[in-house]
Design brief:
The protein has about 110 residues and is an alpha+beta fold. The protein has 2 helices and 6 strands. The chain has a 4-stranded mixed sheet with strand order 3-2-1-6, with helices on one face. It is elongated, with a radius of gyration of 16 Å.
């Protein structure tokens, strides 16, 4: 489980979720977790982190099986699994910003 100082500059980690389907019908899911590069010796109101690249905490990509239960694997299913991976990776008390382009996955995440 990833953890870090959540009080630094008030910006939560960002979880980017993408599902894709290639020409052969293979569904993949990729999750990236990033955070601003805020240094320990910086004051709270110091904004130098805005000029630095973010720190990559985790990148995970996974190929889904062609069949998942009784239905064929889909991009929405891949992105919904990305929400689950993000939730299990970060500490429960840590707020996070989720980014995905799937309205179905966002609706599922809100309802869960």
């Amino acid at each position: 489980m990833l953890s870090f100082n959540k009080d630094v500059c008030g910006i939560p980690p960002t979880i980017s979720i993408a599902g894709s389907l290639n020409s052969e019908g293979i569904t993949k899911r990729t999750v990236c977790i990033i955070t601003p590069d805020v240094r320990d010796d910086e004051r709270f109101d110091h904004l130098a982190w805005q000029d630095r690249f973010s720190k990559i905490l985790l990148i995970r990509s996974w190929r889904l099986p062609n069949q998942w239960g009784t239905s064929k694997a889909s991009i929405d299913m891949a992105e919904s699994l990305g929400f689950i991976i993000g939730a299990y990776t970060l500490h429960m008390d840590l707020p996070a910003l989720y980014i995905t382009d799937s309205n179905n996955a966002r609706t599922l995440q809100r309802n869960v």
